[in-house]
Design brief:
Number of strands: 8
Structural class: alpha+beta
Number of domains: 3
Strand order of the largest sheet: 3-4-7
Order of helices and strands: HEHHEHHHHHHHEEEEEE
Shape: elongated
Oligomer: single chain
Length: about 325
Amino acid sequence: MTDISPLDQARILSEALPHMQQYDEETIVIKYGGHAMGDEETAKNFARDIVLLEQTAINPVVVHGGGPQIATMLKRLGIVSEFAAGLFLQQAVGPKWQKDYVDFWERLRTRVLEKNNFGIAPNDAGPLWLGLRLISPKTEQGYLNVIYPKGAYVLSMLRSVMYADQSASGNRDQAFIDMMHDFIATHQDAPASTESFKAVAEKHMSKQMDLAQNGRLDWFFNEWVYGTEIPRYSLKYDMESEGGEKTRVKVEITQSEVGENFAMFVPVFADFGKGMVRLGQVAVLGNATRAAIFHLDSKPKKVGLNAYKEILER
């Protein structure tokens, strides 16, 4: 407020005071991000605002960030940190990660799709890129229940479509991990945006992901960042012996409740007795049914789609 005249300051505060009084004696949690912490003038203005809140009978609790500072220290120490969607739960929980992992994504899916008292789901408020504009009188939680859960899904789905199903060795998530490392390194000292993240993702995309044959991921970002469509999937499959334990599995995947140009790669899984194992992914365009055949060395107990809920679906 340093560039505002005292008269304007008084007017703004008098207009804001009735709204602020709604939160008398309430505790408000405020995130003070690491990027903001690096600017002295911003820090002074932030401190002044906190004092103002306290003077109006609001109890502010400040939770500080530090991402840029931590990243700088790790870089100085030569430590490479991995920022990756869902990888933490799989690697940190232990061998029985599946339940926690599925529960995590199911909670996020519910936050995106569950309707409120007005019959409006957060996803109905608008696309991800709108940010704070997702908040309205009828969608007060629009921002919190789109930006964070759907944003996590964007990373999860990128990880899924980048997964190297046909790789015989090495980490099949390597392309995704390399992309995230590249993004962090590229934006170490530069602001990030949706388009700058998209540019990094396009550097690491596979040939399979290049649906428009133009080296761009417009299709993915138009659907999940700039759009609000969320598909529904169903599966039919049959199995046929190919001699001995070898089995031919034919799947038919139906995608519905989307536009004619909506495309997505849907992961297919099979259970051989020790949990679901990913077989591959099938691209489906529009409201359509797509068939695919998998030749397996043994007969699975069952076949399923999106077994670990990494793709956002209805």
